[in-house]
Design brief:
It is built from nine helices and eight strands. By secondary structure, it is α+β, with helices and mostly antiparallel strands. It folds into two domains: 3-52, no CATH class; 60-258, no CATH class. The radius of gyration is 19 Å and the shape is globular.
Amino acid sequence: MNCVEVRARLHPYVDGELTVSEAAEIDGHCVECRPCADLVSAEREFRRLLRRQPREAAAPELRGRIVRRIRREAIVSKRRRWLPVPVVAVAAAIVAAVLWPARTPPPLIVDLVDKHLAYAQIERPAEVVSSDSRELTEWFQSRAGLRVTVPDYSRSGIQLIGGRLAEAREHQAAYLLYEKGRTLLSVFMVPASATDVPLPGRRVAYRGHDYVGYERKGVRTVSWTDGKAVYGLVSMLDYNALLECADRLRDERARQTRL
Ligand SMILES: [Zn+2]
């Protein structure tokens, strides 16, 4: 078995779903191949972390602290604007951040938050490491037949790290990883069939589009759907930044669809 074949079976392998002989072939390959062995241990570590994520929602006092912190950050962010956006849009986003922390997120979003937190703790969260949007687009296409839009946020100081395939509610999802400084930004694209749409919760309009935001375990999420896919951004970045990233992904996606 070569590296490509091993990596195509990575998830069923660590989940113990392969036949004994297939698993033995991968064991053998990993003895010789350090990169594949590293992938296997990263994937195992990831599953271990996922199991460790607490299932319970934040306690009320913690929730209160988070809400107060968001309000403070919303005020601070007016001063240090992260991206040059029109004043009206910034004002709208700040209102969103104050009113938002929506109710309990739907299971899909809970799942994405857990994945984000787990990936934020592992050494090599990306399955394919690249800062080149085109290369990643091609990787998703050849690896899984997915047509994925990979936005470039580098002018805003948010660097593309890479991508991976992820499972969300038993659906195959595309997962893009970015970082701003040491803060991870996760961008998930999941088939719309993985959840009930529209997503429940209060909607907020940003530049003419609707989004739903949830706050969970200290991270923020911004989500929307275009009917075919659900998009979810997860990060400790503030809502202004997330909405701006969401808006750009949406623009880019619309542009690609027109081509
Ligand atoms: Zn290998």
